[in-house]
Fold:
Amino acid sequence: MSRLEELIKELTVEHTEHLKKVEEFKKQLDKNFSPELVEEILEFFKTEVENHAIKEEEDLVEEIEKVAPDFDTEAIVFGHNTLREAIEDLETTFEEYKKGKASEEKIKKFANQLFIILKDHFVEEENFLFPDLKKYDIEI
Structure:
């Protein structure tokens, strides 16, 4: 198995783990909203999800460049930047909430948008990016 294949497998496992965590967060947000939960969600995205994104931007891009130098890796970074902006939106809304300037509903809305963006991003990678990369890898 090539390094690229190993990396894709590893990233796919992380996608599954992250989506399970997001499902837990969704349930908790609906049932037991609390500032601590929002902090936990933000921390998860700023550490776990960000570390995953960095692994893709550094390790995956490095492997892609070895097998497919013309491959558009900017799309990966673009997807991550969209996610980062959504994290910032949730963080800003949470700061407003703590000052009494935003509602619990608004936080839930931004958190759910963030969850959807993450899921859509993972689906895109698994259904389009990774299969495309495997084609390149086989040709080498």
Q: What stands out?
A: The mean pLDDT is 94. The two ends are 13 Å apart (CA to CA). The chain has four helices and no strands.
